[in-house]
Structures are given as C-alpha cells and as structure tokens.
Input
Amino acid sequence: MRVALLLCTFLFCNLGLSAQGGPAKPAAKAYFNVTFPASKGAQFDGRLLLLMAKNDKSEPRFQIADGPTSQLVFGLDVNAWKAEQVKTFTSSEFGYPIEGLSQVPAGTYFVQVLLDKYETFKRSDGKTVKLPTDRGEGRQWNLAPGNLMSKPVKITFDPKAAKPISLVMDQEIPAIPEPKDTKYVKHIKIRSERLSKFWGRDMYLGAHILLPEGFDEHPEARYPLAVYHGHFPSDFGGFRTTPPDPNLKCEYSDRFKLDCYNRIQQQEAYDFYKMWTGPNFPRMLVIEIQHANPYYDDSYAVNSQNLGPYGDAITYELIPNIEKQFRGIGQGWARFMYGGSTGGWEALAAQVFYPTEYNGCYAACPDPIDFRAYTVVDLYKDKNAYWLESDFKKTPRPGHRDYLGHVSATLREMNLKELALGTKSRSGQQFDIWEAVYSPVGEDGYPKPIWDKYTGEIDHKVAEYWKENYDLAYILKRDWAKLGPQLRGKIKIYCGDMDNFYLNNAVYLMEDFLKQTTNPHYDGEVDYGDRAEHCWNGDHTQPNAISRLRYHRMFIPKWTEEVQKRAPAGADLKSWRY
Output
C-alpha cells in the first residue's frame, strides 16, 4: 500500500498528471449530475461525454472539431454504471478545448450528454479490454446506434453556482438500415475466421461491389479487381444511375468554398455511371471495403498487434470470396488498389506487405509514409511532439493549415481533443488509430502510447517498433533487394505541396529514396500539386473539389493500360475487354 501511494505521489503530483491522462486537479463541487433510466438497460461501461455549445446550429455532439469552431467536450470513463445511478461532472473531468468545467465562462449554453458504450473483449493474446464496437455506422461515437444521449437543452451555466444541473439520457441513437442491392451494386458480409479468433467473438468484413456493364450478358468473362481503399463507406460512393435531383436544396461547402457542392457531387456520380456503362470503359469489379473495428472506421488494411490480422483477413478471406462469387480472375496480377489519405496509406502499405497479391497502387495524399515526418514530427529524433525544442520558449507544432499556411489547430490541440473523447487510444480519432495500428500491446492490453497524450513526450522505444514494422519508407529501403523486383512499376504516389496535414513532408522523403533505387529502379511515379491541399490525387487539370470525386475514372483506365506490361504470359487480358 505504501509503495503504491509513493508511486502515485511521484507520477501524478510531481509530474502534474492525473490517472486519466490530464492535469491533476483538486476535488471540486458538482456541476452536472447525469443518469439514465432502467428502460435503457441495467448497466453499461463506456465513455460519458458532456457536450456544451454556444449555438444551436446543430446538436452539440456534432460540433466537436480540431479548428476554432469547436465547442466543448468533457469526458468520464464509467464502469458497471447502473441505471438511475448518478454520475457527476466536476472540475476533475478532462475537457477540450477548455480543460476543466471550473474554467468555462458563465453564460448560456446548449448542453447534451452522450454515452459511448464499451463492450468487453477477451482476445486470443490473453488480454481483456473494454472497447466500443462498430454497429453499422463506421465506429463514430456521435452516430453509433445504441449509444445513449440526452436531448440538447438550453441552460444558464455559472461555475460559481451552488446547485448542479441534472441531465437524463433517455434517448438512443437508432439502428442504421443495411444498404440494398441494385443491378450494378451488390453487398457482401463475411465472418472472418482470422479476426474472430483474435478478438474472441464473431468479427465480420464487408464490401460494396460495383459490377461491370454486361456482367449478366457475358458469363464467360473473368474480371480484374479494383480495390478503392478509404474510410468506412455506408454504400458504394460516387455512382448514381439517375440525373441530379432538380429539387435538391443547395449546400455550401466551406472546405472548398463552393455553393451547391451537393449538386456537383450528384452530377459527378451520374457522369461516372454514364462513363461506366459506356462502350469504351474497362470492365472490371470495383470494391469498397467495410473493415471498421473497435478503434476506428477502418483497420488500415494491415496486421496489427492491437487490431488483429486485418491485412491477412482482407487479402486471403474477403477478396477471394468476392472474386469467387462475382467471377473475378482471382490472381495477384489482376488486382490493384487506389485511395486517398487513409486510403492512400492503405493502398501503398498493402502493396508493400503483399507485393505479389496486388499489381499496382495509386496512393494519393497518403497518411505519413515516413515517420521522420510523422506530419511535422520526427519520431526518431524529436523529444516532444507538441513543442519545438528550445531553452527559453514554447513554440507549438502546427497540426492543420490551409494552402496559404494559415494554421487553425496545433498538434497538441488535436491530441487533447482525442484525450477528452477517450482514454487508452479509444477516441476513434486519427492519432489514436495510428497508435492502435502501429504500437505494440501494452501491459494493460491497450496500445502503448507513442507519446504522452497530455505532455507530448515521445517514447522512442515505441517509435523503434513503429519503424521496424510500419514505416513504409524505411521498410522499402531495408528490404529493397527482395521487394524491388516485386514492386517495379507498381508504386504511384501523389500529394499536394500544401497538404493540410503536412503529409507531403513524408512523401518528399519517400521520393528521395525511390529516385535512388537500383536493381531495379522503382519505375513508378511521384507527383505534387502546386499549392494543392489535402487530398490532391494527381490530376493537374481539376481542383481538389472535383478530382476527389473521380478516383474510379482516373485510375481504372490508367491501370488497364499499365497492366499489359506487367501481366504474366498467358494472362487473360481480353475476356473483360468487351
């Protein structure tokens, strides 16, 4: 007991941290009391979130962001929380962008509470962990069916007030209907043996399949497979068999500064349908994969100590199942991948880790592919992720910028948002999923942190594990003698030189290596968009707002021409070219 007390005193008092990961705070009075009725269940584990907004433009649960528009969130882990039992928010619960409720200015707010439910997993590695699960929404805490919440209410809040405010979670996010099959788009879901064994329960993979024109009329044809990697798709995107809805209300895109962008999206989707069914477009299968997991909306398509063997499950279970059911050629030379951002990293990573199972990747604006430029951090040399090294001043590292370099969020702010949403890499957000995929398992069963979530201090032992297992540039350089002959001509990378998340920095480092390759030369392509933001994909003729909607029409014809150089002797290059 005494040893534990001394350890607690050293870690949390001397370093100014709490067990939750935020700054240590003295016990304080109650500001909010939260309950849920027995009609919603007997008891739950999870992350209880208190959300406060100064406006009612949308529900507070939809107003938490990295940038300056973000409203307030405070988080509290709950275990075996019983119906009608009161959970209290004091000044001790960590928050973003204000760290404690006692610091929130007095005023009028719209308030909502939400419980992101956790379930218990007993994994095959012997670890027992409590994690959220995907329920058809793609692992989104504010959209997950079954999560409890309250209706937003308008309140007057004063941290000096004596009486706490009571909130009841009597609402539940409804289930999401399954997408329906059409003539061109089919849906599949399989139980993965590999993933089920790892997680200790049934785990599934899904996909949306776009069938080629003439699929039923050409039963003799066998088709190549195009894998479009990216975030969780609710259905096959960018494909529409009818013209844009003339009655569709215009929606302004703040990201692209375009009015009626929703109409533009519908027009592009309809144009692709006409192209897809036209006489000259290559005939093949195109899939978008559903591989949401307890940590994120997708798995990054690789094997991981914390997520399990998703790379093997996708490559050796899901894809062969699809090819068998929908007359795919079923050989590595007849598969290729493309995607942007997360999908860009996945396309390149799967090509590197399964070099003969795929025959080309087009990786646009990929997540960091060299950890010497993990956005703006060198994980191997830097001591702190949040601050530039200095004897006398603290300069924060930027996290998000626009094409003119204007910074809207720092790395520290982005990570503190995640810390408020979930401890132990459970926020379902970007830095936490990188940590979950790349890190070894910690003693507690959760991912070992790459850095202290509150202070930013980097753990270089964890960084070394990342380097050896997931630093794509390092792995290519280390293993080029073996991988080079298998990857020649297959690697294509595109990125804007003003990527919002500084992802171009890692691409520069990868390009430096690829240009120097010999025996063989990589014989691929690396290209940059001038002043282009996230996620430029190689099209110099169109702005991001348009080119991001044209992945299929860009890369399918391109690969169709390239594959003739890399297909083995006797390969079927004709049955699908009708």
